[in-house]
Each structure stands twice: as structure tokens, then as C-alpha cells.
Amino acid sequence: LVTAGKVREIGLSEAGAATIRRAHAVHPLGVLQTEWSLWSRDIEAEIAPLCRELGITVVAYAPLGRGFLSGTIRSVDQLGTDDFRRIAQPRFAAENLPRNLTVVDRLVRLADERGVSAAQLALAWLHHRDLDVVPIPGTRRRSHLDENAAAAFLDLDAEDLAAIEASVAPGHIAGARWNEQSMQFIEL
């Protein structure tokens, strides 16, 4: 299909390093879509460096932790009874939410000190990971779209990035990103 001009580039979603290498050997990949945010960082050890090495753009979905990193979700009661975050996202579970709220509160304080929103700071952090990382935050409101777009223009220095890293370190997050059933479909 690429040779026929019907497809410009080939990409994968939620693939592990071995699959990426195998696929790239058959035909160069253009993109990997995967979850990446301050609270979902498991791709940083092997997958993100591999994508850089092979010239593969990372399209980071859920860069705001499914809205959690905005600082506006304070209780699972804010989510509808059929909201997938209640069903498939252990990080929103009652036993994990209090610990995760302390993490997001640190992010909110950092954002307040810089005069930006927590969502903007989380997106800007991801933008600063590499030039070939494209975050795709979901939004339902025009005001959030404008806020998210403005994050691309935030300039973070090494001190800012270190403060963000320290406040939302991977070990501080409670709960898996997906429940056990959903994780079966994700290759790490």
C-alpha cells in the first residue's frame, strides 16, 4: 500500500520493543501511538529510546492522565457510573485516589507558581521530552483546546523539568494504568 501510494506511513499502537523492531525491519515505521504522560511513563526505559533511534514519532495519547493531571478530578464521584475510568482504571479506584491526589496537588502548586494550569504544565513537560513526541489530549470544551494548545509555547528550563520530575515521579503513582483484563492487550 505504501508503494502504491495509498498509505504514506505505517504505524503501530501500544507495541513493545520486540514488535517495533520486527515491524520496522519489514518496513520503516513512521509512528507509534502509546500512552505517555507524567503518570504513565513505562515507555521511557526502552520504547521511547528505541523510537528515537529508529526515527519513529511517538503520538502520546492520554497525556493528561485521562483528565486527572488537570487537577479538576477530586473524587471518583465526579465520574459517571459507566465512566471507563471507574471500571478499567485502577488509578481512579478509591484505594489509590488519595495518594494520586497528593501527586496532582504538587503539580498544581508548581503550575500556580509559574502562572499556568496543571494541564499546561503536564503537556509542556511532554513536549520537552523530544521533538518527535506529539501529545494528543482529548478535550470537550473549546476553552480546554485553547489552553492545551498554549502549552506548546511554554518554555521550561532544566530547573522546571527537574521540579516536575521530582513532584510526579513514577514511583509516586498508585495503581496500574489499566485493569488486568485491559492490560492483556498492551505489549510492553
Describe the protein in words:
With 188 residues, the protein is an alpha/beta fold. The protein has helices at 17-26, 47-54, 84-88, 97-114, 118-127, 142-150, 158-167, 180-183; strands at 10-13, 29-35, 57-61, 133-136. It has a 4-stranded parallel beta sheet with strand order 1-2-3-4.
Give the amount of beta strand, in percent. Answer: 5-15%
Q: List low-pLDDT spans.
A: none
The termini sit apart by 28 Å
Q: Let me know the largest β-sheet.
A: 4 strands, parallel
What would a concise description of this structure say?
This protein has eight helices and four strands, in the order E-H-E-H-E-H-H-H-E-H-H-H.
Write the layout of secondary structure elements.
Blueprint: E1 10-13, H1 17-26, E2 29-35, H2 47-54, E3 57-61, H3 84-88, H4 97-114, H5 118-127, E4 133-136, H6 142-150, H7 158-167, H8 180-183
Parallel strand pairs: 1-2, 2-3, 3-4
Helix pairs in contact: 1-2, 4-5
